[in-house]
Amino acid sequence: NLETHSGTAGPKVLSINVTGGTKILDKIYTGTRKPTIEVQFFEPAIATFANLVSANGKLTLSLQLSDTLSTKATFSIKDTLPDGEYIFKLNAKSEDNIFMDPPSSQAIVIDTTNPELNVIPSNGAILDKTVVTLQLAFSEEVIINSIKLNSDDIKDKFTTSNNKVFTASQNLTDGNKRLVVEAMDYAQNSVIKDTEFIVDARPTEINLV
User: Fold this and answer.
1) Beta strand pairing call for 104-110 and 27-30
2) What is the pLDDT of residues 33-75, one digit of tens each?
């Protein structure tokens, strides 16, 4: 007898989750160096192949498989992984022994380093103009939580083209200014920076008695 199958593409992945992971576009970012990868299938399946390969090709980890038919497959990383980008590769078969076509692939970035931030104007600067350009230059892509100037949130005043450098132009009165920036990278490593500067743009008035 000839076997026929209603679906010929094999199992399909519903979702891939990583411990502490945040998905941004096509990558999952995590600050966990020994993450667990959880795969949800649309229908019961058995994983037949799973590994994690570093993007530079220097490290390949074969992940332990289960021969149980299930809509969920869990892979625990036993080794402590260095920061970097990895590719998780997976194949699985359905109850009818039909394999995934194509196999699944997911980029995972492990990042345990806090972002660095350089602020212009610098701490202690004295500015002789009222229109001030504020610049925040991060060492990596970030999500801004808040930007406060003397307790006023001015986050919405900033623009960016790459999520690394943010700029805003502000018309400021004379006096002491305190800029507090809170941000985090895609793996939720945080940075807080407090910068104080002085605006002294008004000409000094000399009164002759």
Assistant:
1) parallel
2) 999 999 999 999 999 999 999 999 889 999 999 999 999 999 9
Q: Which long-range contacts (CB under 8 A, 24 or more apart) does 164-170 make?
A: 164/137, 164/138, 164/139, 164/140, 165/135, 165/136, 165/137, 165/138, 166/135, 166/136, 166/138, 167/133, 167/134, 167/135, 167/136, 168/133, 168/134, 169/131, 169/132, 169/133, 169/134, 170/131, 170/132, 170/134
Question: Which pLDDT tens digit goes with each residue over 91-127?
Answer: 999 999 999 989 999 999 999 999 999 999 999 999 9
Whether residue 194 contacts residue 120, with contact meaning beta carbons closer than 8 Å, is answered with no
Give one word for 126, left, alpha or beta, with left for phi > 0 and alpha for psi -120 to 50. beta
Cβ within 8 Å of residue 93, ≥6 positions away: 10, 11, 45, 46, 48, 99, 100
Q: How far is CA 21 from the centre of its chain?
A: 8
Residue 52 CB coordination number (10 Å): 22
Edge-to-edge strand order for the sheet containing 190-199? 126-127, 190-199, 175-185, 142-149, 152-153
**Cα-only R_g, the chain:** 26
What is d(CA 137, CA 121) in angstroms, rounded to the nearest whole number? Answer: 11
Q: Kindly report the pTM of this predicted structure.
A: 0.83
Q: Are 50 and 75 in contact (CB under 8 A)?
A: yes
